[in-house]
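Technical annex, item 7. During the second reporting period the consortium partners agreed on a shared format for inverse folding records so that results from different sites could be compared directly. Each record opens with the tokenized structure and is followed by the designed sequence. A conforming record, contributed by the partner at site C, is shown below for reference.
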């Protein structure tokens, strides 16, 4: 018998059963209690990542039959009100396509919509990238067709690298400029030619345009950091990733569980691909040859006594729940129109309508309604009392379409493949990020890492905690958004059993509770038997229960879960064995996250996601992660896409800086050339010295410009010109001295003149040059007064 382990230092990975490190005590410092259960039960703690087998489970299937009651969508869905932002769709007056070409264009447009492009307009990023010469009109319409075609062509075969020539093949030559614009945009923003296929990985080992670029320090090796790093490397940047844990992945963590001849891979963090249409993680799965398992919609619910919920009551309460949400929707519409800044808790509004319309008044109905509320708290990782009524579902219009899916053997397969060959320094907890006009310095583990730019991908919980010092401080606008936006909690109990006693016909089932305050405690179970490789059940803990869960011992947690399961299955004559291993997460106590994922809290709005995404320090420090993605927050693909977004932003900034530097160099060259032309006809020349006088004055004390020519084989051009500002009298005295050496001594020691390059001349010197130049162009303007 092994004692359970209750740790909270880095709870998103699992401690090995024989770990005797001092961290393996609970937060209060008590010794871990023993248990009558035989299996090892543990809290999660981050150490080195256990390898997860690549073998695909034998019973994985992508389109299973769905026997039993009618399908009920009880997954993490928030799609209720989408009226604030219109969901993209084809224009209503569009006629049905007749020709094959028109049908193909429709298909390509649908693919573009699935990845987030609007139907007949440009994205903000496309406008910023100047993909067309003017907004609107025929050029834009043609560009959209070309862009959609290139995107669809690569999506049809994501294993190959789509070249510019292949993109141009089906487009008339007259549109080559549009092909170039669309191809460059899609490539640089990570819409095509990304991922993990051999052809794509090989092509991305070098800069796509042959240009070597700046150094970037990336803080965090989660999905956003890994994706950004791979994209930046392909753009010619040099990157280094600093990760506080001893593994990559961040909030994506797969734990290998085993015992008594069974083995399974449990996703303790991000686990479900929420919508497969257009999802970049779906692209990775295709490239890696991973079959997707659709999460089936059948989700039976069970009362506290283990009996199944009456189907008619279940349906009636589900309809009533949706009507409550509709009424809240109408309320917020009128409130936003009348008083722009009013916001109240979503839970308060729902409870008020529930009382007014007398919804769910008997015991079973009340438990059912509370189950739906717990499911909503799961979707948002928050209590209903903390959610903004006005904006809690602002991301619904952008939700990825298609099935919700599991990945066989866990999402860490993505992480390990993305982390391959990247320069990641583990165990480097970042304490400080300092930034200025010359670049950034990141301090971690007693080391200093310097770069031209930095990308901060830490979770919102870490920013809220202030774990990282920013010097100078972040702008108040960003600090306010960090505090306003919500960051909540979801926890899990993963249990590996000796056999699958719950059956293979369902992927989810739910449990109701009489106490509203514990409605989120083990309210939903996910079966991973079809994808994990073994009989694995995961119980979810949401809302207020998720917070209290972290104060409960893992032994007590597993006992409660087993009591629920035995209450459901024992009356059916099904024996529920003890698990061979169980793991409890503690995301709230994890010092690398301090929570699970973001939500729109009261007083916040979708704008705060955009503010979090803004760079600071004149584009020196950038930010990525799910909490910076307004369209896809709280999702793995949201983190992925934010990494792509910031890589594109960094490329844009680097190009702008390079262009500005080139302009400065060109400007300096032009200035030097212009000055050299003035010295072709100096007022006085002697030895290596020549001088120009102020054309507006004959005064012996007026300013004059002296130029000294230095020659040497070590100089690139064979010579070097330096300049100094003197009086006309000093110039004449200098000309009367024999030898350049003596003249230099007189210049420095007696006159105190310091020679400088062209850029080092003072404003007085620049003004003198302007007067001399004007006099050369217009001799009459130089007449002495």
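Designed sequence (site C submission):
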């Amino acid at each position: 018998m092994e004692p359970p382990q209750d740790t909270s230092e880095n709870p998103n990975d699992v401690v090995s059963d024989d770990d005797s490190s001092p961290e393996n005590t609970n937060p209060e410092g008590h010794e871990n209690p023993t248990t009558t259960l035989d299996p090892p039960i543990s809290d999660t703690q981050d150490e080195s990542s256990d390898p997860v087998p690549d073998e695909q489970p034998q019973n994985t299937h992508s389109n299973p039959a769905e026997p039993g009651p009618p399908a009920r969508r009880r997954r993490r869905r928030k799609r209720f009100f989408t009226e604030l932002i219109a969901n993209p769709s084809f224009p209503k007056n569009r006629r049905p396509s007749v020709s094959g070409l028109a049908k193909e264009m429709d298909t390509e447009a649908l693919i573009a919509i699935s990845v987030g492009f609007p139907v007949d307009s440009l994205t903000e990023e496309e406008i910023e990238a100047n993909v067309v010469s003017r907004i609107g009109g025929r050029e834009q319409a043609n560009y959209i067709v070309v862009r959609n075609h290139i995107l669809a062509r690569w999506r049809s075969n994501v294993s190959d690298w789509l070249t510019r020539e292949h993109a141009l093949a089906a487009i008339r030559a007259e549109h080559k400029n549009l092909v170039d614009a669309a191809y460059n945009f899609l490539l640089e923003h990570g819409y095509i030619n990304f991922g993990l296929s051999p052809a794509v990985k090989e092509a991305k080992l070098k800069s796509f345009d042959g240009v070597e670029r700046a150094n970037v320090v990336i803080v965090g090796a989660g999905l956003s950091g890994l994706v950004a790093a791979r994209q930046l490397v392909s753009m010619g940047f040099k990157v280094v990733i600093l990760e506080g844990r001893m593994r990559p992945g961040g909030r994506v963590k797969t734990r290998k569980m085993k015992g008594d001849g069974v083995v399974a891979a449990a996703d303790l963090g991000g686990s479900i691909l929420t919508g497969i249409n257009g999802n970049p993680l779906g692209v990775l799965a295709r490239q890696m040859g991973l079959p997707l398992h659709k999460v089936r919609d059948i989700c039976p619910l069970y009362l506290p006594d283990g009996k199944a919920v009456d189907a008619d009551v279940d349906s009636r309460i589900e309809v009533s729940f949706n009507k409550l949400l509709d009424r809240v929707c109408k309320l917020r519409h009128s409130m936003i129109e009348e008083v722009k800044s009013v916001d109240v808790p979503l839970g308060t509004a729902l409870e008020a309508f529930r009382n007014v319309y007398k919804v769910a008044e008997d015991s079973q109905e009340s438990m059912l309604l509370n189950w739906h509320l717990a499911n909503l708290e799961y979707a948002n990782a928050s209590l209903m009392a903390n959610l903004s009524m006005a904006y809690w579902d602002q991301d619904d219009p952008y939700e990825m379409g298609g099935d919700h899916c599991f990945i066989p053997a866990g999402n860490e397969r993505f992480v390990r493949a993305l982390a391959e060959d990247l320069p990641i320094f583990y165990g480097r907890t970042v304490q400080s990020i300092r930034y200025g006009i010359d670049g950034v310095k990141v301090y971690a583990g007693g080391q200093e890492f310097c770069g031209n730019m930095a990308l901060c991908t830490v979770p919102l919980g870490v920013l809220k905690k202030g774990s990282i010092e920013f010097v100078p401080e972040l702008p108040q606008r960003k600090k306010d958004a960090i505090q306003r936006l919500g960051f909540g909690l979801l926890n899990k109990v993963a249990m590996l059993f000796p056999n699958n006693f719950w059956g293979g016909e369902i992927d989810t089932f739910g449990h109701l509770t009489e106490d509203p305050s514990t409605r989120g405690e083990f309210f939903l179970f996910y079966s991973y038997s079809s994808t994990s490789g073994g009989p694995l059940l995961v119980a979810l803990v949401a809302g207020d229960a998720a917070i209290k869960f972290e104060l409960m011992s893992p032994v007590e947690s597993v006992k409660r879960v087993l009591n629920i399961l035995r209450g459901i299955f024992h009356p059916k004559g099904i024996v529920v064995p003890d698990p061979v291993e169980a793991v409890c997460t503690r995301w709230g106590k994890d010092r690398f996250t301090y929570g699970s994922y973001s939500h729109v809290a009261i007083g916040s709005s979708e704008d705060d996601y955009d503010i979090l995404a803004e760079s600071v320090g004149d584009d020196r420090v950038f930010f990525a992660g799910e909490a910076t993605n307004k369209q896809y927050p709280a999702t793995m693909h949201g983190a992925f896409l934010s990494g792509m977004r910031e890589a594109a932003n960094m490329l844009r900034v680097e190009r702008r800086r390079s262009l500005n530097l080139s302009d400065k160099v060109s400007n300096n060259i032009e200035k030097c050339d212009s000055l050299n032309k003035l010295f072709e006809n100096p007022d006085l020349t002697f030895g290596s010295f020549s001088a120009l006088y102020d054309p507006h004055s004959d005064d012996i004390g007026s300013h004059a410009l002296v130029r000294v020519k230095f020659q040497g084989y070590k100089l690139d051009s064979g010579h070097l010109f330096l300049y100094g500002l003197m009086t006309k009298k000093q110039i004449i005295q200098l000309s009367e001295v024999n030898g350049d050496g003596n003249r230099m001594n007189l210049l420095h020691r007696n006159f105190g003149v310091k020679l400088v390059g062209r850029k080092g001349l003072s404003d007085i010197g620049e003004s003198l040059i302007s007067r001399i130049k004007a006099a050369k162009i217009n001799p009459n303007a130089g007449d002495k007064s």
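Residues 636-678 form the longest helix (43 residues). DSSP finds 21 helices and 27 strands in the chain. All partners now use this format for quarterly exchanges.
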